[in-house]
Amino acid sequence: MLKKLFGGADKKPAAQKQAGKKNQNPQAKSHKKSNQPARDTHKAEHLAHKGAAKKKGAGNKSRQRKPRIEDTPWNPADFKVEPMEGKVRFHDLDLPESVMRGVHELGFQYCSPIQAQSLPAALRGRDTIGQAQTGTGKTAAFLLTILNQLLTDKIEERYASEPRALIVAPTRELAMQIGKDAEGLAKYTGLNVCTVVGGMNYEEQRAQLRNEVVDILVATPGRLIDFMRSQDVFLDQIEVLVLDEADRMLDMGFIPDVRRIVRATPPKDERQTLLYSATFNYDVRILIDQWMFDPLTVVIEPEQVTTDRVTQTLYLVAESDKYDLLAKILERDKPERCIIFANRRDLTRNLCDKLNKNGHVSVLLSGEVNQQKRIRTLERFRDGHVNIMVATDVAGRGIHVDNVSHVINFTLPEDPEDYVHRIGRTGRAGAKGTSISFVSEDDAFNLPPLEKYLGTKLELTQPD
């Protein structure tokens, strides 16, 4: 299930020369040493301020590491990967043995382009900007960076409510997927991952923050702000801050919350910051200047993501004929797994109802579906109990499912970035995928900006 973490096959020589870039700024790696007096002061203030009810026993004791998973002995010598020209092996990155075991268990040997270009500098502690879509392996890039930092620079005395690494993501689905990926990759490290999102059990999340020593916290902005207000989490010990899909957080109006979150962490020259975004407009660049210290920028062009492994077909069709065309395609291709995207919630709901009435088995994923039902819906789709999902863009950002054979754009998205994210649901982990888009007279207005964004002309064809 975690294979998507590492992206597809490396299609061109990885930029190993990045390893020779400017060395990590000394300040960025020294904050734990310089922060020790502050840590001692914080400890005293913590105990005085929170009181016995806040301590919950574990909060005033040294870190008790959760036991590592030891099922069968593992010999690192069994993980052999031959050097290959133009590729970077995970062996070349000098990762901790417990992390390498997780990589080995997932069956991966060579870095994806964004990993090969960003990890050498990120593992030294340098701030890193990644311009890349989903499916490129960016999640594994920042998770490996976090795990390396926390394992190589251990702190013996730890307290509840004080995570060492924070990952902020715009949607519940994306945050939960990152949390799941982090737990899998950290399986043998003994590190504790906690995910807090809205729409889920508040008290359970609160209890985990207050009673456990959390190493890695994954959160959506709103729920994290809630726990900051109630003083159930403190961010002044954050060593690595990850902001995923920064452009989407801008679009969704989360930046005021994210600003408050970032202000609660150590200064930018005393923490490592990793920021990922599909695009970098003026607003995103302003945030980079404010929040990052001498960052390395790695760009994976969208053309590589969208065209290398995905066959794209665009049909010119009248709006009134779209459903009939959809039914013919489903009958003709019999997709293993298919995601159908539409721009509006009401359209996705009506489309899902019509498919089910006509003998198909489909499920709906949109903002109007509550979180518990979303989770069950994704599980049914992931497990193969249903093979058709109808989704909106915001909900679709959190879909990370292997073996999606088809993506069908019932309507063209207004934002070109959403097109890339949509078809990025297929063609993952090196597999081939099929993208089919319906272009009516209304959709045609969205075609020129999409072609400009992709840097290529999209050919329209008449359906058979």
Would you kindly provide a brief summary of this structure?
This protein is of the alpha/beta class and about 475 residues long.
Summarize the amount of helix as a percent range: 25-40%
CA gyration radius, whole angstroms = 23 Å
Q: State the shape.
A: globular
Q: Give start-end ranges of low-pLDDT stretches.
A: 9-39, 49-65
Give a written overview of the molecule.
With 464 residues, this protein is of the alpha/beta class. The protein is 39% helix and 13% strand. It folds into 2 domains: 3-300, 3-Layer(aba) Sandwich (Rossmann fold), CATH 3.40.50.300; 304-461, Rossmann fold (3-Layer(aba) Sandwich), CATH 3.40.50. It has a 7-stranded parallel sheet, sandwiched between helices. A 7-stranded parallel sheet has the order 10-11-9-12-13-8-14, with helices on both faces. The two termini are 37 Å apart. Residues 9-39 and 49-65 have low confidence and may be disordered.
Primary descriptors:
464 residues; alpha/beta; Rossmann fold; 2 domains; seven-stranded parallel sheet; 19 helices; 39% helix; 13% strand
List the helices and strands and how they pair.
Layout lengths: L25 H4 L1 H4 L1 H20 L41 H9 L7 H10 L5 E4 L6 H15 L12 E4 L3 H14 L7 E4 L5 H10 L4 E4 L1 H9 L10 E4 L2 H6 L3 H9 L8 E6 L4 H10 L4 E4 L2 H6 L2 E7 L5 H12 L4 E4 L3 H13 L4 E4 L5 H12 L5 E4 L1 H4 L9 E4 L6 H8 L9 E7 L7 H8 L5 E2 L3
Parallel strand pairs: 1-6, 1-7, 2-4, 2-5, 3-4, 5-6, 8-13, 8-14, 9-11, 9-12, 10-11, 12-13
Helix pairs in contact: 5-6, 6-7, 9-11
